[in-house]
Structures are given as C-alpha cells and as structure tokens.
Amino acid sequence: xxxxxxxxxxxxxxxxxxxxxxxxxxxxxxxxxxxxxxxxxxxxxxxxxxxxxxxxxxxxxxxxxxxxxxxxxxxxxxxxxxxxxxxxxxxxxxxxxxxxxxxxxxxxxxxxxxxxxxxxxxxxxxxxxxxxxxxxxxxxxxxxxxxxxxxxxxxxxxxxxxxxxxxxxxxxxxxxxxxxxxxxxxxxxxxxxxxxxxxxxxxxxxxxxxxxxxxxxxxxxxxxxxxxxxxxxxxxxxxxxxxxxxxxxxxxxxxxxxxxxxxxxxxxxxxxxxxxxxxxxxxxxxxxxxxxxxxxxxxxxxxxxxxxxxxxxxxxxxxxxxxxxxxxxxxxxxxxxxxxxxxxxxxxxxxxxxxxxxxxxxxxxxxxxxxxxxxxxxxxxxxxxxxxxxxxxxxxxxxxxxxxxxxxxxxxxxxxxxxxxxxxxxxxxxxxxxxxxxxxxxxxxxxxxxxxxxxxxxxxxxxxxxxxxxxxxxxxxxxxxxxxxxxxxxxxxxxxxxxxxxxxxxxxxxxxxxxxxxxxxxxxxxxxxxxxxxxxxxxxxxxxxxxxxxxxxxxxxxxxxxxxxxxxxxxxxxxxxxxxxxxxxxxxxxxxxxxxxxxxxxxxxxxxxxxxxxxxxxxxxxxxxxxxxxxxxxxxxxxxxxxxxxxxxxxxxxxxxxxxxxxxxxxxxxxxxxxxxxxxxxxxxxxxxxxxxxxxxxxxxxxxxxxxxxxxxxxxxxxxxxxxxxxxxxxxxxxxxxxxxxxxxxxxxxxxxxxxxxx
Length: 759
Description:
alpha+beta, 7-stranded antiparallel sheet, 20 helices, 33 strands, 23% strand, disordered N terminus
C-alpha cells in the first residue's frame, strides 16, 4: 500500500472502526438508468439518464480502478460495465472517469477462459446473484468456464485471483484496449511476465490526436505458464509480442486442478513500463490476495469514517456511504511511487516531483460545486496537492486549463472553474502551493487572449474577446472553437462567477486594479437578465433579445438546460439577482414557480444550488422542505439509484452535503447553507483531531423543519455556517419540528451576496 496516499487521510480515533461502514457501499449503484421523475422529463439523451458509474475496485483517488467489463470499447459515453448486460468479457484496469459521459483511456483487460483457447467471441454469461461488490473487492462466478474470478487493489496496482471448479486448462488473455489498434504487448513465458501499453488520445479540443502518454502495465503470474503466444481476432501466433493490431493481445495457458488458484498482480503507470513495474514492486510484495484485500478494506473504512452518520434507516446509510464512495474516485492519482509523471499537454519530458503527488482528471465544471468543497473540509492536505497539480499544468502548458482530463487541455465545458476552485481553496486558508504562480495563471485566463494556435488547442477562455467587449457574450458569437458551441448566456453567467472568485484573491494579494475590474465584471450576469420576462435570455450585440423566448425549453444559448433553470446560476450574488426580479419575495416566488412547474432538474449540475436559495429569502423552511423531497425522490439504493450522470462524484457530493444539513451554494465564500439533516447524528472527523457533531433533536421521524439551532450550547441565529467555524469543530444542535417555522428568515440571518458586501 502507498503510505504517502494513506497519510493524506486524516488520522482517526480507533473507536470509529467499531461499525463496518464498507458494508453499506453499493458499487453497482448508478450502473443502471435512473427512473426518477426529473431524469425522465429533463434528460435530453439516453446517456443523461445513466449515472455512468462502474463497480470500481481500488483505493480512494487511485491511479487505476478495476472493474468487470461488459463493454469492450473505449468509446465516449460507454462505461465498461452496464448492469443490464448479461455477458462479461474480462476484468479491466480502467481510467474511466466515474459517472461521466466521456471515454476510457489507456486501459487493459484480462479475460480468463477454460478448456480450449478462444481469442474471439469469448464473452461469458454471469448473474448479479453471483457477484460480490465492495470498494475493495469484487468476485463473480463464471459458470460456463467453471471459474471464480476475484479482484482487489492498491493505489496503482491490482491483484486478481482465479479459482477453477474442475481440473482444466486456464488461459488468460491480456488485451490492451486500443480502439485504434495502436497498442503494444509482450510476454516472457520463462519469467511469467507480460508488459505493454495503450496510447491515450485527446478528446474535445484536439480530438483524436495523441495525448503524448500511454496507459502502461506490467503483469506477473504466480505460476509459470505452460503455453504462451499472441493473437489477433481469431488468429493465434507462436510469438512473444504483437504491435499495432486491433483486437490483439497475448495469452498464457496453465494447467490447474479443481480448487487450485492462480493469482496475478498488475502494476500500472502513465510514465513507462519500468515505472509500472516499480509501482508493483512498491505496493504489492506478496501473493497473499487476502492481505491486499484486507488492507484496501481498512483504507476504505478509514476514508468513509470521516463522516459517521447515525439513524434507524439502513437504506439511508446505504445511499450515504455509496455517495461517499463515489465522491472519492477522482481526481485521479497520476504520479508514480517515484514521483514521476508525464508532462501536461505533451507527455514529454517525463517529470519528477520532489514531494507530494500529481493528480489529473478534474471534471471541473461539475466538481467545483460540492465534491471539491467536501474535500476542502475533510482533506485539505490533499486539496493542496490538487491545486499544486493544477498550477503545474498551467506552467507546463502555458495556460491554466479549463477542464483538465487525459492530462491535456480539453475546453470540454463552459466557465473557468479551475479558477473558482483555486480561489475557494485560497479564501479558506488552504494555501500550501505557489500562490503567486497560481494567481498569474488565473489572471492570464481572465484578461489575456491566446493566439489562434493556442486557442484551437483548448487554451484560454472561450469567447473572451466578446465577453470583454460587451460585458456578455452576444448571440453573434457562436463560439465555434469549442465542444459546446454557442451557450452564450450560460457562459456569461459562469464567467461572472469566476471573475468574482478571482477578485477575492486579487484583493487579498493587494492587486487593487485587478480587483476593481473583476468585481465590476462579476456583475455581468445583469447584462443577460431580461426584466420583461424575469429570466435570463439570449442577447445580440446591439442589445435586442433573442426570439422566440421559451422559458422551459432547451435553447442554444443555454448549457444543458433551460433559461428558467439557468437564471438561478448567480451563486455569488443571489441578493442582486433578487433585486433584478423585484425583491426577495419575487425571488421566492420564482423559486416556487420552478418547483411547481416541475422544472427543477436535479440530474444536471447548474441547478444544484437552487434548492438552498430559499435561505436568501424570508422562507428558509422551503429549503428544508424541497431538499427533503429531493433527497427522498432523486436518490435511492440499488443499481438505478442516481438521477443523472454522477460526474466524478458531484451528484453524490450533493447528497452528502444535503444529508448532513449543509451546502456550499457559493464555495468561494465558504458559507454553507443550513437545512435539516437526514440523520439523527452526524460526526465529521476533521484534521487536527477535531470533530464537528451535528445532533438533531426531534419528537418523531416526520420532524423536518428547523425550530432553532445551538452551536456549542449558544443560540445560533444565522441560516448558514462559515467554513472556518466548521473546521474548528464543536457541537451543532438542530431542533426540528413537524410544521414550518420562521427560523433563519430575518435579513440579518441570511448569507452574504456580492451586492450586499462592503469592500
């Protein structure tokens, strides 16, 4: 096990291990389409109805996850495993971004076959009743092959164990999953070793171009094979390597008795085969499968125990700890035990860290909202390394990336939320990285126009010249050089938030001119608000509005949603938005209308803050009501338990925050909106041996409305709690009753907004 990775988890008291939390995790959750009302109504495409998670075996934030494979491609929006499938075609070392509609890369698959060697049409039936799925372990029986397959893992490596149920030949196919047929794989029969790689390719900007690095693997067999060779489709060759052929790989054959086990161990790397071998030598030094499994189980127990929940409803615990599991898959560890990693946006040269870890696969448009803020509370040491990784990317590539995945620029989504994440870390006092370098890169994104080559390559903000010229992105700018084209209003709203985020860092660093300009730009959301309809709307350069206006239909100027849904994306200045609408009561009415029309779509991120916005009005009790409804209607246990793409853990992180009664509507401010928790008692284990206990007092299970709150025994009158208060720990007592109250409704109780702050 990687000690450095383990040390990033908070050291916790022994008492937390008295309850097995791993048993509550359901790795199959999200592998089947959602059946929620919101998903059925608002999902535009079939992929949006899937959570797109996989039953991943590995450690938190691991380099490689290990999953049963029911789909053999690395195709966009096709995860390696679908619950509805009936055939397994192997066991994959995967770099699928959990819950995404992206694509796998640099993966490899191992398939066990008994009897006669088959190198084509070898997928075999399986049943969910014969699966065991946990974060640390997977097991399935393959009856047609008379074989039991098991997997466990470390941070960068995996171990598989195959047990035959009869005397037979066992063949293992090792397949680098290159859809382009660009892989290399070798076998050394005498040593019982296999090694190779699968080159990664870019997606979105530069789509299809080589990313400059590969997924490397190094495999050791516990026993020496009696037969080896290579294959391509159904053709078998008596040679020890094969290169650049589709549907190719190597095979190793063994003679086993009934009940005999064959174990293999696999090292992975993004740097080289040599580093994959070093990773394996460092992390798995035994053939004892159970010891590796036990160690992985302990690591997950420690990670899950950072939030302990108590209550009578076991289903709620299953949903909660499954959400914790999903919220700790990414960003992905990208550096080796030696500290090596491929350079950002080119792969070459291979670089080496002096200390710490390098991370990638930041689904930033999604996770800056709740998943990363959750880590800022629980694991600030890891957050420092995440920010350091982003700064390194900017320095190596020349521009701070917008949505860094596949260790490349992508410009996949809108906004500039790497800036929002770094700023939210800085404002919370998480600053163990090069702040000066970080600010320089963030400022470059906000103020500078990249040259044409850089822009086409995915560097810089999309449509920034228009945004700077008009204070919004007009309809004439179709944003052609982007995966998401147009979407001008959504881009304007999100850039306004990012400008606000950067303004706070500028002010803190005494960059007064920058601060003044950015603070003004943070109000640009006003420029796309049409007071005639009370919602945001597409606008042309001369100031006239786009027609026709459809409040509740997907429009070209909105990202993955409707004008009504996106109007509420002003997380930094909700009071200012209320003023545009006509006041706090008008904002409350607009929120009421959204929910009454069933236009709230929980399955996509831009609306995740909406349920908590009643705390900015005189009716916080409506937040308590709406959040309880969403928690019960949009989350469940079982394979279809998520309402849309989990998006690297954001959907799950929303549930975690809602279930403990807190939510970071504006992560940069550090203010967490208070609502009524799902559980009777919650304990957050915090760094420095501190803990925050949230205790609910209620007479019966249907008490959901807040009557009063005490913090450390003193009456607490705010309807939000700041980050610094959370991090100090203490006891937050929430008194609940069956009917709505006016708790938290006064103007002085409400969270801050840009328009109400004095600077």
